[in-house]
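Weekly modeling sync, notes
Attendees: AB, CL, MP (scribe)

Item 1: holo prediction request
CL wants a bound-state model with zinc ion before deciding which constructs to order. AB pointed out that an apo prediction alone won't tell us much about the pocket. Agreed to run with the ligand included and paste results into these notes for async review.

Input as submitted:
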Amino acid sequence: MKTCTKCKKEFPLNFFYKKKERKNGHSSRCKKCELLTSRLWANSEKGFINRLFIRINAKTRHKRFRNLSEKEKNKHRCYVTKEKFINLWELHKKKYGYTCALTGVEIIPKTTSNKEINKSNSISVDRLNPAIGYTEENIIFVSNKVNQMKSAVTKELCIAIIKAYEEKGL
Ligand SMILES: [Zn+2]
């Protein structure tokens, strides 16, 4: 039996995750408390922004990039450190608050694996220019929905669309 340092309840050892680096080979908190803590972290703003960074940083290692050339991979590569990334988010908040840099809609640090929950206004990190990677200048924070719509929109395409609008007087 072992006492959880969080809920102070006593449980058999299999109620604790195995952790090699721990003295007795188990986590100090019970499984339930561990899960609760990680869920709280994932849904906190800090945890959410942290995860966004982890995701973009690992992006080019994803299997869908495996067969791409280095040049293609560079378009998706992360060129900023975690500290820089967190700083960029702080700068975004100063300038835009909790709104999308492109549409002004509210964006929130909401994490969920539940597909039924609408994630369209989750904070999403995008590349302003999809032809270059995640650099300090190119990173923008937008809503998840905008990120999906924008994924292939280049500056040239934007200009062409505006030109067509103007020509048609729309
Ligand atoms: Zn516990």
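Recorded for review: The CA atoms of residues 46 and 67 lie 33 Å apart.
Action items: CL to compare against the apo run; MP to circulate these notes.
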